[in-house]
């Protein structure tokens, strides 16, 4: 069973990988400058935050949850460190990073505890905390903006520092991908997360508390969102109440395109990364082929719908008796 | 449904009614202008359009499904009407276009869930992105505002005295949905469907037909809300009604509808709509920014869902086994 699922997931990742490469190849055929290393590095830099967030969201969806508050968490943590930097520009990068991650972890843990301890539906909890976190940004900042001239050069420059041709931001994403690949495949925690989402009652009988796994997933997801709060604010050099508004849906879209099943238990790191790159390549290619960037959203929607229908078809072959009636 | 649960529901609605009374008293004492007929009439515009969608969405959530694409359907319908108006279509034609666009979009959702077997949350996250994306793709950063003068009657007109047409539409719909859910056999089937879809199926409820119809009706009502909102604003941007899906879902859940399906009433949803609308309006009177309101709504939403769980734990009854929304 596990073998079969792994194979089908691997086939799916391969198919998505081929699609992304074909996409790259066809754009490059028309516009050779698209595949320049510099441009590819830019696409990676552009997709890095999405990749980080989608990895966190993947954990949550794997355990049958969903985190709608991820973008609000990002914005609140981002505003927090932006204000910190504005008032204490000499603090250096370590406290900024630590506080961003700590704030995000706390906000994520709140989601996780509500879901675990009170058994509340994740969609309602995160819908609620999404509004609360957004509102708190306003209270924290008094509705003001923090602009780039109020941020220290170090704060802005850290993520732009280049190492071997790639920015620190890109390296962070690459590092996270590697860490997640190991975590999901070779650690007990990773396997437990899959089990808790794939079959919660079986997990409970083997001594894994599915609620606790959900809580851990939300907390890790929150920590990543907190880190991305700093990354976002530094990258776009501005912090205000509405940054990353609605970005949670793009993150979920990347997961769904990447083959993470909303019913839990199914999803791979490779798939999620490819889903993000798919969105990233299209976003960077559209202006080049002369299509208005306003089409991006529609294309994403179409891809989610098609991918969802296709992935259900494939699963139904195997679990037809169970799925057909409960779906 | 046991009598105890029924009493619980009654309590929920009476709590909402109590909140409503407190709101009235406090706003009336804080602002001398609050209890004016026209002030109250103005206040209703804060919730009418959203409540028009909250009614069918309540049925859908009771049936164990969810539709996140409602606000995107508003955008799609509004863009369709705007383009038609720019080509010279008159008022009745515009309404027909708005409603049928909504209905078609709802049917797409229904088909994905019933024929495609896609979980409704995934299907409607997809169509939400798709519908809103089409609205952006068609309009870009343009604005459509060449609506005929007569078209403004739906959102800006009054039926009798200070009773707006929007509020009249909402009241008629509330009666229709209330009777449908609480009196007819079809309404009972919707509860059965949400409480246990497999049992409902084996008891002869045409499960997929119900689901499809509910998505179609939700789409139709979103089209209707698009007519009302577009008529009131007199313009269409692709970002119209952005974020409303979450406000409308909050409205339904605050109204006492269970996200697990199988529980909820139309009077509850209606009361929640009025309560939220008045809080919005009242805080506006007191110069409190709307974003602060979102903290209150968010916290309320979580509290409302947490109360029954905590109550059950206190009384020592086994907590309900978690099911996916």
Could you explain how this protein is built, in words?
- The complex is a heterodimer of chains A (327) and B (325).
- Chain A has a domain at 47-246.
- Helices cover 75% and strands 2% of the residues of chain A.
- Chain A is built from 13 helices and 4 strands.
- Chain A starts with a helix and ends with a helix.
- Residues 317-327 of chain A have low confidence and may be disordered.
- Chain B is an all-alpha fold and 325 residues long.
- Chain B has a single domain (3-314), classed as ABC transporter involved in vitamin B12 uptake, BtuC.
- Helices cover 72% and strands 2% of the residues of chain B.
- In chain B, a hairpin with a 2-residue loop joins strand 1 and strand 2 (163-164).
- In chain B, helix 1 (3-30) packs parallel to helix 13 (266-285) and helix 8 (165-182) packs across helix 9.
- Classes of the chains: A mainly alpha (327), B mainly alpha (325).
- At the A-B interface, helix 5, helix 11 and helix 13 of A face helix 6, helix 10, helix 12 and helix 14 of B.
Question: What is the secondary structure topology, with strand pairs?
Answer:
The complex is a heterodimer of chains A (327) and B (325).
Chain A: H1 2-30, H2 37-62, H3 70-87, H4 93-117, H5 122-141, E1 146-147, H6 153-157, E2 162-163, E3 166-167, H7 168-186, H8 188-198, H9 200-205, H10 210-236, E4 238-239, H11 247-257, H12 269-285, H13 295-326
Antiparallel strand pairs in A: 1-4, 2-3
Chain B: H1 3-30, H2 37-44, H3 48-62, H4 70-86, H5 91-114, H6 120-139, H7 153-156, E1 158-160, E2 163-164, H8 165-182, H9 185-195, H10 197-202, H11 207-233, H12 244-254, H13 266-285, H14 290-314
Antiparallel strand pairs in B: 1-2
Helix pairs in contact in B: 1-13, 3-8, 3-9, 3-11, 3-12, 3-13, 4-5, 4-6, 4-11, 5-6, 5-11, 8-9, 12-13
């Amino acid at each position: 069973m596990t073998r079969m699922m792994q194979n089908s997931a691997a086939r799916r990742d391969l198919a998505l990988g081929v699609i992304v490469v074909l996409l790259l190849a066809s754009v490059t055929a028309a516009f050779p400058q698209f595949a320049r290393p510099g441009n590819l590095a830019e696409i990676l830099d552009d997709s890095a935050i999405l990749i980080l967030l989608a990895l966190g969201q993947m954990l949550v969806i794997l355990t049958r949850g969903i985190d709608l508050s991820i973008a609000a968490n990002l914005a609140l943590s981002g505003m927090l460190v932006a204000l910190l930097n504005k008032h204490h520009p000499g603090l250096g990068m370590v406290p900024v990073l630590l506080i961003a991650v700590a704030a995000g972890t706390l906000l994520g843990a709140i989601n996780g505890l509500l879901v675990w301890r009170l058994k509340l539906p994740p969609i309602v909890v995160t819908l609620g905390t999404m509004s609360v976190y957004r509102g708190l940004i306003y209270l924290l900042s008094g509705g003001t903006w923090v602009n780039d001239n109020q941020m220290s050069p170090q704060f802005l420059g850290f993520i732009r520092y280049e190492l071997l041709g790639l920015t620190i931001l890109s390296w962070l994403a690459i590092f996270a991908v590697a860490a997640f690949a190991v975590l999901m495949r070779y650690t007990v925690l990773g396997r437990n997360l899959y089990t808790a989402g794939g079959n919660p009652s079986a997990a409970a009988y083997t001594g894994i508390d599915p609620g606790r796994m959900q809580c851990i997933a939300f907390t890790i997801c929150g920590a990543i969102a907190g880190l991305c709060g700093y990354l976002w604010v530094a990258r776009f050099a501005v912090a205000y109440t509405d940054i990353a508004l609605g970005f949670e849906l793009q993150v979920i879209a990347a997961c769904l395109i990447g083959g993470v099943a909303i019913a839990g238990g199914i999803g791979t790191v490779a798939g999620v990364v490819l889903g993000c790159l798919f969105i990233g390549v299209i976003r960077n290619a559209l202006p080049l082929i002369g299509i208005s960037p306003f089409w991006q959203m529609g294309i994403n929607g179409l891809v989610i719908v098609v991918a969802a229908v296709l992935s259900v078809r494939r699963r139904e072959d195997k679990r037809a008796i169970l799925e057909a009636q409960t779906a | 449904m046991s009598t105890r649960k029924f009493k619980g529901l009654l309590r929920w609605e009476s709590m909402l009614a109590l909140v409503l009374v407190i709101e009235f008293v406090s706003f009336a004492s804080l602002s001398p202008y609050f209890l004016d007929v026209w002030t109250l009439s103005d206040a209703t515009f804060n919730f009418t359009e959203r409540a028009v969608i909250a009614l069918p969405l309540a049925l859908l959530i009771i049936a164990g499904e969810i539709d996140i694409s409602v606000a995107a359907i508003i955008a799609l319908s509004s863009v369709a009407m705007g383009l038609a108006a720019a080509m010279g279509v008159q008022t009745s034609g515009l309404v027909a276009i708005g409603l049928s666009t909504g209905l078609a979009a709802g049917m797409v959702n229904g088909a994905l869930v019933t024929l495609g077997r896609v979980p409704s949350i995934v299907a409607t996250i997809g169509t939400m992105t798709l519908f809103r994306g089409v609205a952006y793709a068609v309009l870009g950063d343009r604005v459509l505002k060449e609506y005929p003068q007569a078209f403004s009657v739906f959102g800006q007109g009054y039926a009798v005295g200070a009773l707006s047409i929007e509020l009249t539409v909402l009241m008629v719909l509330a009666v229709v949905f209330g009777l449908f859910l609480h009196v007819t056999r079809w309404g009972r089937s919707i509860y059965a469907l949400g409480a246990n879809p497999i049992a409902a199926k084996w008891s002869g409820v045409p499960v997929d037909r119900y689901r499809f119809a509910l998505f179609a009706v939700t789409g139709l009502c979103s089209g209707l809300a698009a007519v009302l909102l577009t008529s009131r604003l007199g313009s269409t941007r692709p970002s119209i009604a952005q974020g409303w899906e979450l406000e409308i879902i909050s409205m339904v859940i605050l109204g006492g509808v269970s996200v697990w399906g199988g529980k909820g009433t139309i009077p509850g949803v209606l009361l929640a709509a009025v309560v939220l609308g008045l809080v919005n309006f009242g805080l506006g009177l007191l110069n409190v920014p709307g974003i602060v309101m979102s903290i209150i709504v968010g916290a309320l939403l979580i509290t409302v869902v947490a109360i029954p769980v905590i109550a059950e734990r206190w009384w020592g009854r086994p907590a309900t086994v978690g099911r996916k929304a």
